[in-house]
From TrEMBL:
Listed name of the protein: D,D-heptose 1,7-bisphosphate phosphatase
Broad class of where this protein is predominantly found: cytoplasm
Gene3D superfamilies: HAD superfamily/HAD-like
Presence of keyword Transmembrane: no
Organism classification: Bacteria, Pseudomonadati, Pseudomonadota, Gammaproteobacteria, Cellvibrionales
Gene name, Swiss-Prot/TrEMBL: gmhB
Enzyme class: hydrolase
Length: 182
């Protein structure tokens, strides 16, 4: 069973201008939950890797984050799938940690937890730091145009980097799931 790594904000749920700070603000994007359930039912292990610097800044606390993730897991389970794991970075830029994307600490932790390699696994994100993190770990970078994705795509097109040329672009998570499952 292959792991698919998913960014959270802007991929699975709506990305406000700043941070999702409460469970009520955690609102799934259209089709995202069903896409996750379909991928899960097809045997893929869905693992989320998300930067949550709002924790370091005190914008919300661990209870808030756990409530968001309980909601996410419950919605996917109601749709007949499951989330295999949720890994988050609680730090801010100033902490210079190893886990804040584009650093690969979250992916290292996923590999350790699942005793596997993420090489050639899909990594779906909406920001450049997701794509850079994916490439640094040998994952296949996938950009969705939800969240900050359209802005990221415009920036990739206006400022092409050879490193990011392998990025595949989809309208949203549902279209990515269709591609994987076809
Ligand atoms: Mg994002
Ligand atoms: Zn971190």
């Amino acid at each position: 069973m292959a792991i698919i790594v998913l960014d959270r904000d802007g991929v699975i749920n709506h990305q406000p201008d700043d941070h999702v700070t409460s469970v009520d603000q955690w609102i799934p994007l259209p089709g995202a939950i069903e896409a996750m359930a379909q991928l899960s039912r097809a045997g893929h292990q869905l693992v989320i890797a998300t930067n949550q610097s709002g924790l370091a800044r005190g914008l919300f606390d661990l209870d808030d984050l756990e409530a968001m993730h309980a909601k996410l897991r419950a919605l996917v389970e109601d749709a007949g799938g499951e989330v295999a794991g949720i890994f988050y970075c609680p730090h801010s830029d100033e902490d210079n940690c190893r886990c804040r994307k584009p650093n690969t600490g979250l992916l290292d932790a996923i590999e350790a937890e699942f005793d596997t390699s993420l090489h050639d696994c899909y990594f779906v994100g909406d920001q450049r730091k997701d794509l850079e993190c994916a490439i640094a770990k040998g994952c296949k970078p996938i950009l969705v145009q939800t969240g900050r994705g359209q802005h990221t795509l415009a920036s990739l097109l206006s400022n092409p980097e050879p490193q990011l040329a392998a990025t595949a672009v989809f309208a949203d998570l549902a279209h990515f799931a269709d591609f994987v499952l076809q």
